[in-house]
Specification:
The protein has helices at about 20-25, 40-55, 95-105, 110-120, 185-190, 195-215, 270, 280-285; strands at about 5-10, 15, 30, 60, 65-70, 70-75, 80, 85, 125-130, 155-160, 170-175, 230-235, 240, 250-260, 290, 305. It is α+β, with helices and mostly antiparallel strands and about 300 residues long. It has a single domain (about 5-305), classed as Jelly Rolls (Sandwich). Bound molecules: 2-oxoglutaric acid and fe (ii) ion (FE2). Fe (ii) ion binds next to loops.
């Protein structure tokens, strides 16, 4: 068996591989193993059972952005489960216990240590959380498109499985990508100054897919256990692979975090257009921020959470 890249001790401290930072800079992603406590994952499942599944109130969803009732799917093992992903469940008044459980899961010293091994920001704003029940079938894209740091590439996606992720149940595929490498419209040979935002998005991502293929960049598909965390940069192209058959669940959290020192929001089209005006992010008002200890190894720092709503 391969040596894990990072290990959690029972005390919750983490030994992080010294090569993690260089790997992240070069590849734009990193799997950090064993950082999330099993009890925290169990707690989220328990809270989902009594606060989400048992409740018929419409909840805010991804991708609709609206409050929708549950959409159900029949699982391969004969159950029925919720299929439509929750958007920002940590911010919804209907799910206060889920908010607490998500904070307890994400904002731990072990996750701080993992982040400190790949990034030097030390303080972040949670910009968005999505809770997926099944693989969303997302096409190849970059998460920073709608808003990123200045310069782009500093936002991090924390992708946290709530159940094992295998080649069967719709894993995430990552195209290794140097952190901070932004291909411009000129690099891609496209015009991004005409069309609707959707058309520009599609034109850019279609050209990005061709560039990935022409460069021979191979998709990496991490198999993840409960407890693992996949971190990737906002410019790292990725997608969801489909499940091998219908009715396979693949529960996971996607947490977008942006360094507090660069909380402003500039979309990739704005960055490519050379737009120097920073749009203050709505997330700075509604988000939740926390700090990572400066010396992750020695600090007795307690996670600082502050709702800045
Ligand atoms: O969970 C997945 O398969 C990927 C989702 C994703 O990349 C996104 O929503 O930005
Ligand atoms: Fe994504």
């Amino acid at each position: 068996m391969m040596k894990p890249l990072a290990q959690s001790t029972p005390e919750g401290t983490t030994t992080v591989d010294a090569t993690a930072g260089a790997f992240y800079a070069q590849n734009g992603y990193r799997v950090l193993r064993g950082l999330i406590r099993a009890e925290a994952i169990t707690a989220v499942h328990n809270v989902l059972a009594h606060e989400v599944y048992a409740n018929s109130a419409p909840l805010k969803r991804h991708l609709s952005l609206t409050k929708d009732p549950h959409a159900y799917v029949a699982t391969a093992d004969g159950r029925t489960t919720v299929a439509n992903a929750l958007l920002d469940p940590h911010m919804q008044t209907e799910t206060p216990t889920l908010r607490r459980a998500l904070i307890d899961l994400i904002c731990t010293t072990a996750v701080a240590d993992g982040l400190a091994s790949i990034d030097d920001a030390r303080a972040y704003v949670v910009r968005q959380i999505i809770l997926f029940f099944v693989s969303p079938g997302t096409d190849t894209h970059i998460d920073g498109w709608g808003g990123d740091t200045v310069p782009p590439g500093g936002q991090i996606t924390l992708w946290i499985p709530l159940e094992p992720v295998t080649p069967e149940n719709g894993p995430v595929g990552i195209f290794p990508w140097p952190k901070g490498q932004l291909l411009s419209d000129k690099d891609l040979g496209i015009d991004i100054n005409r069309g609707t935002p959707d058309e520009i998005y599609n034109r850019y991502h279609d050209a990005l897919k061709i560039a990935i293929r022409e460069r021979g960049i191979m998709c990496t598909v991490p198999q993840l256990d409960v407890g693992d965390l996949l971190a990737f940069s906002s410019l790292t192209p990725h997608m969801s692979l489909p499940p091998r058959r219908e009715g396979l669940t693949r529960m996971a959290l996607q947490v977008l975090i942006r360094p507090l020192r660069s909380p402003w929001h500039r979309s990739i089209p704005q960055a490519l257009a050379g737009d120097v005006r920073y749009r203050q992010p709505y997330c700075a008002k509604i988000g939740t921020r926390w700090r990572v200890p400066h010396s992750a190894a020695t600090s007795t720092f307690k996670w600082l959470w502050q709702s800045i709503r």
